[in-house]
UniProtKB/TrEMBL annotation, chain A:
The lineage of its organism: Bacteria, Pseudomonadati, Bacteroidota, Flavobacteriia, Flavobacteriales. InterPro entries: Na_pump_deCOase. Its main location: membrane. It comes from Neptunitalea lumnitzerae. This is Oxaloacetate decarboxylase (Na(+) extruding). The chain crosses the membrane at residues 12-36. It comes from the Bacteria. Keywords: Cell membrane, Membrane, Transmembrane, Transmembrane helix. It is found in: Cell membrane.
Automatic annotation (TrEMBL), chain B:
Residues 1-27 form the signal peptide. It comes from Neptunitalea lumnitzerae. It comes from the Bacteria. The chain crosses the membrane at residues 51-81, 88-106, 118-142, 154-177, 213-240, 261-288, 308-330, 337-356, 406-427. InterPro entries: OadB_MmdB. It is found in: Cell membrane. This is Oxaloacetate decarboxylase subunit beta. It is a multi-pass membrane protein. The keyword Repeat does not apply. Pfam families: OAD_beta (PF03977).
Length: 119, 428
């Protein structure tokens, strides 16, 4: 019983420390990747005019830039259908190649038709 | 036609039964300790030879335990084929159970635990924890972390679900397992087969004064992973209200290529600095993801996520299955491990669900999360995410949660690997 209690005590310590560390590890990742888009934007070089244009053209609110899932699905479907229909560019030269016929007894007509005496 | 088929089938069954019964009867009549007499007539010697041969057959050495395990193996194969429950895992494991439980005379380098046998060499990858990191490499190469990156707060759900690991660890101690064994058993709550095998190969391998529990732990982990669609939905319904289940989440934002490349690198550095013992798992997981996202190593990523992971899954499945040799596997401790495993899955699911509800207390409007996705915090990828998706659709046909649920699901993989690292650093 003493042994079990000692193990239990250590178990509780590991439980508390373990959960704390797991949370810390994922909390650090969470914090970092919440800030990541902002960090990337801060470091990426953007042409000044483009920035101005965006700010002048519309008072962009989050609502306006938001694209719903349905809209996104509709656009994706349209693009997909267009790409499916789009044909490869083909060679426009028309040629008449003689079709080579390889003889094979399996495809020979003579073996699949009845031979009648014509005389 | 159908009638004829049934008759053929009946004949086959009767033939097989007759074969086994005859073999068994012959073996029992000849006895198991037959030896060839050096002198005697040719006929007598031939009879002795047949008796010796029969004494080496499975019929002469079979026990009830073997038959029980063979039935378990057949049941796994049946579940995989008939119900499509994780067939990629259950068919190799089920076949492995059959292979590992064919009765034989010990000492001929046949069994998985006999030094020098072919199965023993293949089992080396399990005992030394080689296969799990290779599986993680493949998982990394096939995982898209963008759902997680678009909503990083869902990472916390992956952390919350790890409560299943640590509470099961305590439960195992209470049931009388040593600290090392308890650590290995606790990781079943991580719902991650490779992690469970990795940790049990380090903590409960039969070499460090502990019992060899790799087989029972692996089988429990994979069995419950296959049963996620059965275990999780009732808990989800129990802990969430109708109103919560129909919460629609904001569509995830588009994630830039740069973020996707930075994530595995930063993730690798951060998580392994915090928990270096998890390096073999997390190192390979993020390495696989770098291969995928870098855009320059498509060939390597393709190999890691297809051929390599397939090869390792085959070897891992069949050897883990074969390690369930009846005399090692059928013990009271194995039964305890199975009970603890079931409880750990329940606790992990509850942990994720309750934490999602807790997070909702601080979130407003569009940012609220559907608590069902908390259940995906257990790292059974992608099964638990799929279960969440299906469950949400039952209450609202237009509520697609799959992408949202994938976020805590992959966070759960990272969380369980970190938890394994922590247990290893404390107990290893």
């Amino acid at each position: 019983m003493m042994f079990l209690n000692a193990n239990m005590d250590e178990g509780f310590v590991i439980l508390l420390v373990g959960m704390f560390i797991v949370f810390i590890a994922l909390l650090v990742l969470f914090t970092l990747f919440t800030l990541m888009p902002k960090l990337l934007n801060a470091f990426s070089k953007k042409p000044k005019t483009a920035v101005k244009k965006v700010s002048n053209s519309s008072e962009t609110s989050n609502k306006e830039s938001y694209v719903s899932g349905e809209q996104m699905a509709a656009v994706s479907t349209a693009v997909y259908l267009f790409l499916e229909e789009a044909h490869d560019e083909e060679n426009a030269i028309v040629t008449i190649n003689s079709v080579a016929k390889n003889y094979s007894p399996w495809s020979s007509k003579i073996y699949v038709t009845h031979r009648f005496n014509n005389r | 036609m159908l009638f004829n088929k049934k008759r053929t089938y009946n004949k086959l069954v009767i033939g097989a039964l007759a074969f086994f019964i005859t073999g068994f009867a012959l073996a029992q009549v000849s006895g198991t300790d037959a030896t060839m007499a050096a002198d005697g007539s040719l006929f007598q010697r031939a009879l002795d030879g047949i008796a010796t041969f029969l004494s080496y057959t499975g019929f002469a050495n079979v026990t009830i335990a073997h038959i029980v395990m063979i039935v378990v193996g057949l049941f796994f194969i049946f579940l995989a084929i008939n119900y499509d429950y994780e067939p990629l895992l259950l068919i190799p494991i089920g076949t492995g159970i059959l292979i590992g439980n064919i009765p034989f005379v010990a000492g001929n380098q046949i069994g998985i635990y006999e030094t020098g046998s072919v199965l023993n060499y293949l089992y080396f990858g399990v005992v030394k924890g080689i296969y799990p990191p290779l599986i993680f490499l493949g998982i990394g190469a096939m995982t898209d972390f963008s759902s997680l990156l678009s909503n990083p707060k869902l990472m916390l759900l992956g952390a919350a679900a790890q409560i299943g690991v640590f509470l099961t660890f305590l439960g195992a101690i209470a049931l009388g397992f040593t600290l090392q064994e308890s650590g290995a058993i606790g990781i079943i709550g991580g719902a991650d087969g490779p992690t469970a095998i990795f940790l049990s190969s380090k903590l409960a391998n039969g070499l460090n004064g502990s019992q060899n529990l790799i087989g029972p732990i692996a089988i429990a982990a994979y069995s419950y992973m296959a049963l996620v669609p059965v275990i999780q939905p009732p808990i989800m319904r129990l802990l969430t209200s109708q109103k919560e289940r129909v919460i629609k989440m904001k569509p995830p934002r588009a994630v830039s290529k740069k973020e996707k490349i930075i994530f595995p690198i930063v993730g690798l550095l951060l998580t392994t600095f915090i928990s270096p013992s998890a390096l073999p798992l997390l190192g390979m997981l993020f390495f696989g993801n770098i291969l995928k996202e870098s855009g320059h190593t498509e060939r390597l990523a393709e190999t890691a996520r297809t051929k390599l992971i397939d090869i390792v899954t085959i070897l891992l499945g069949v050897t883990v299955g074969a390690s369930t040799q009846a005399d090692v596997f059928l013990t009271f401790d194995s039964m305890k491990i199975f009970c603890l495993g079931a409880i750990s899955f329940v606790i992990a699911t509850m942990g994720g669900l309750l934490f999602a509800k807790f997070m909702n207390l601080f979130l407003k409007g569009d940012n609220k999360i559907n608590p069902l996705i908390g259940a995906a915090g257990v790292s059974a990828v992608p099964d638990s995410a799929r279960v969440v998706h299906v469950e949400a659709l039952k209450y609202d046909k237009s509520n697609y949660l799959l992408m949202h649920a994938m976020a805590p699901n992959v966070a759960g993989v990272i969380g369980s690997a970190v938890a394994a690292g922590i247990l290893l650093s404390f107990l290893g």
